[in-house]
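User: My advisor asked me to double-check a structure prediction for Acetylornithine aminotransferase before group meeting. I don't want to rely on an old file, so could you generate it fresh from this sequence?
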Amino acid sequence: MNQTVTRADFDQVMVPNYAPADYIPVRGEGARVWDQAGREYIDFAGGIAVNALGHAHPALVKALTEQASKIWHVSNSLTNEPALRLAKKLVAATFAERVFFCNSGAEANEAAFKLARKYAIDVAGSEKYEIISTTNSFHGRTFFTVTVGGQPKYSDGFGPRPQGVKHIPYNDVAALKAAISDKTAAVVVEPVQGEGGVLPADKAYLEAVRALCDQHGALLVFDEVQTGVGRSGSLYAYMEYGVTPDILTSAKSLGGGFPIGAMLTTEKIAKHFGVGTHGSTYGGNPLACAVAEAVIDVVNTPEVLAGIRAKHARFVSQLNAIAAKTGVFSEVRGMGLLIGAVLADAYKGRAKDFMTAAAKAGVMVLQAGPDVVRFAPSLVIADADIDEGMARFAQAVDTLLAK
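Assistant: Sure, here is a fresh prediction for Acetylornithine aminotransferase from the sequence you gave:
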């Protein structure tokens, strides 16, 4: 029988590694969500850039229910049709020639970092194992990925970290030149730092990273967990920059809310993951791959990708109007529908206050660190929902400033 549960139950039965909001969403449709009390919210958070097509999108519901009536799981000792169809579509649409499926962005990055080291050691010997990442980066919560991530607050307190990881400032070519060497197996970059503040890379920086990797025989890994599958306005953000990585990781929007991750790479690199070297019990799950295929079919069209760019402009113009009126933001930055409103000096450290105030006004937003309010809505959100949500957000800002 169904039990009645409330937010108070979280504090009684869940491990306290999260501090969720004081309401529980129970139903969603498009860009709108309703909680247990029937209160409506406009969703500009997208499940942290996950709900690429909003809530209960008909194409995703259809794909999931049709696959659920066929086969759910077969293990990786077999393959399945949805996984093969999805892999073929990702290969056809990107630089990649091979795909590895898993369940999350962290798992995709774990696979990428392991493969980069395996390739480097196989090709150049045991001394070529170093990984260079950037400060304020975020690559997942496994011990390896959290070590590669450049935010010590997530890796401190767990004992000795995996070795061979260096961190340098983001968008700093000189720092990379000083750090990279013939011992470098890979350089890992987010084309837009998501958790680090919605900070896009400079084109010249990524071009220089590519050249330095080539010069030193290192692989270039793009973490596109947050920027991928249309979020940037292209299918993947590397396409926006014209800089092609050797390995790319994808998750979040790929499943539109159903857990899935993917690592994309070339045949030359992929062959170093021979049978038994890496795996994932649920990786390539038929349900997840069927949903992800439907996401790709919807998102990877000229109309939807062009729409993302137009919606970006709509968000930015309205956020700039709030900034001009109130002075709360010093900058609005980002790419596509991953947008960060940077708090002015007088409001630094208060991003969570803005997120809380927004929820009280009926709009869901995110933070990207303590100083940036982040917006990552559905890629197909209606213009009317953008306008209504921004009106609610403007009201939240006014209410917060009046206190």
